[in-house]
Queue: 2 jobs
Job 1
Amino acid sequence: MERGRSPVSFGRGMEAAVDAEKIAMSTSHVRSDAKVPAPELSDLYAPIAAEMGEVERILKRELRNPHPFVDELVRYGCLLGGKRLRPALLLLTAKSLGGVTKDHLTLAAVVEMIHTATLVHDDVLDEADMRRHLATVNSRWDNESSVLLGDYLFTHAFYLASTLESVIGCRLIGRATNAVCEGELRQKGSRGNFELSEADYLEIIEGKTAELTACSCQLGAHFAGASDDVVEQMDGFGRDLGIAFQIADDLLDVLGEDRTTGKSLGTDLEKQKPTLPIIRALEVLSGVERRELLDLLQGEDRRTELLLPYFQKTDSIAYARQRAQSYAERARKRLDVLPDSTSKAVLEVMAKFVVARSH
C-alpha cells in the first residue's frame, strides 16, 4: 500500500483495477482482429485521477498563448495526445514508490508535450488526416503549421523541464528525445527495405516508441528516490512495454478499423514501412510466393486485403501478436521490484492492456 494512504481511500481504484485485470486476462488469448472488450484507461487511471487532473491543468496553463492563431493551434494539438499513457506511467511509478511530488507533475506534463510533438510530426511524415477521431493538424491547417507546432511543443517541454532544481530531468528527457528522433530517422531510411531484419525492426521501434515510455518510468522512479536497481528495472519495464505497444500498433494498422482506432490506418503499407507481420511473412515464404508478396509490397496497390492471404499462410499476425505478448510479460515481471500496491497492480494490468487494446 502506498504510504500516507488509508485502505479506504484506495477502494474504488483497486476495484477498477481488478475489474480491468479480469477483462485483460480474459482477452489475452484472443486474436487481436477479433472484436473483444478491453479495459478503459479511465478505469486504470483511477488511483492517479487527481494527479492526472493536475497534469492537465499544467498543460492548459503552459500551452496558453496570447496570440490567437498560436493559441488555437497549440490547444488543438494538445487534444491529439489522446491516451496520456506516458504521464500516467510516470505517476503510477512514482505513487508505487511512495508518492507523487510537484516535480513528478511537471515532468509528467513535459513527457506528454514531447509525445504530442512527435505525433504532430508523425502525421506530416505519414500524410495522415485523422487522429483520435479528429482531423490532424496538417489536415486541418497545413504541414508548415504542423512542423512549427511540433517544434514549439518540443522547445517548451525542455524549458519546463529546466525549471526544476535538478538537471537530471532535462538530461534524461534530452537523451530520450534524441533517441526518438534517431528511431524516426532510421524508420524513414528503411522505407521500402523489405530485407530489414526483425532485430533491426525492434531496434527502430525501441527508439521511436519505447524510449519515451522507458524515460517516463525512469523519471517516476528516480524522482521518488528509488535505488539504482529499481530505477533500472522501471526503465526496462517502460522499454518492454513500449515495444509491445508498438508491435500492437503495427498490427492495428493492418487489422484495425478507422472508426474504432480513431486515426488513419494503412499508412505503414502506404509508406512501405516493413513492420513485423511483413518481416515475418517474408522470412517464412520462399520462391514464387515470396516474390509475389514483394511485388505487392512494392507495387501501387498495397491494400491490406491483398496481403492478408500471405499473412494467414505464414501465421505472421499470430507471430507478431505473440512477440508483443512476450514483451508485455517481460515488462510485467520487472515489476517484482515494487512493493505491492494499487499502483503496481494497475501497472501490471497496463502490460496486458497494450496488447489487448483495439484503439
Job 2
Amino acid sequence: MPVPATATGPLPVYLLTGFLGSGKTTLLSRLVRSSRFADTAVVINEFGEIGLDHMLVGSADDTDVVLLDSGCLCCAATSSLQDTLESLYYRRQRGEIPAFTRVVVETSGLADPCPVINTLAADPLIARHYRFGGVVATADALHGMAALDAYREASTQIAIADRIALTKADLADEAAIGALRAALRGYNASAPIRAVSPDTVDEDAPALFDGLRAEHLDVAALRAAPAAGPLAHVLRYGIVSYAYTQSRPVGWEDYARWTRHMQRQVGDRLLRAKGILHWTDGTLRAVHGVRHVFSVPEPVAGAEGAARAGAMVLIVQDMSAEDVGEAIRPLGL
C-alpha cells in the first residue's frame, strides 16, 4: 500500500562523516543491525563502506536497495545524491520499500563535508521532501590526535559537527581519551561528545541522531566559558571557530542584512554557521549556513530548547578576528 506523505513535514537527512580509520564504518555497520535504527535509510557513497559489498556488488543504478534483517535500508549511491534521495522517497511513497523516517548519508573519509551539507540544505529538488538534520562526526580515541594534527579534512569534519562519536574508547587509556576530548573541545566548543561501543549500540542510534536539529548548540557550556566577549578557537589550516551568546532578540531585517553580508563579503570562507536564536516575534529558531547558502530559520519548540537558546557559532577559514567581528555585527547579537 502506498505510504501517505508524512504529517510532520520533510524527512530529516543526517550527514555521517569522519576521517579514514576513525571508526565511522564500524559504527555504521553496528547501527544498521540495531532495531533502534530500523526506520533509517542509509545512503552509502562507495561499495563496501559498511561491509555490505557482498550484497551491493552488481548493483547497476541508484534504485538498488538492500533491506537488512533489522529493517534498516541501505542504498548504494552510484549517481547524484539528489537522484538517490528522490528515488528513495518515491519508492517509499509507492510502498516498494518500508516507510523510513530518516536518512543517514555517509561520506568518504577524505571528503570535505561542506559541499554535501550545501546540497542537503539548499538543493530545491531535495527540499521538496527532505530537510538537512545535522552532522555527526567520528573521532578515533587511538589515532584521532594524529589525524587532527596532520589532515585538514579531519579538522574540518570535527569543527562543523553537531555531535561527535568517540570511537575505540575501550582500546585507549584514560589519559589518551582525556587528551583527545580536550582537543575535540578545542575544535568544537558546542557539540556533545559521546563514547560509542558495541555494548551501547542500541542507545547510540537515538543518542546520536534523534532530535539533532534542535540541539545544534550547547549554549549552557558556551555561557559558562570564562570569556567576556566571543569565544575563539584557533585551529590548524587557518580554521577558526567563534561562539557568540545572544544579548537581544534578532529581527527578520537584521537576519536578511546579515545573510547578504555573509554571502557577499565572506562566501567560501564560511565553513559553517549554526545557532539557536530568539526572534523579535517571540519565536525560537535554528539558524544554519554553509558558505554562500543559508536555510530558512526553523522554529524550535519546547521549554528545554528555550533554556538553551541564545548563541551563534561561526566556523571560518582565513579570516582575522576583525573580519569575523565585522561579519557578525549585522546580526546585532
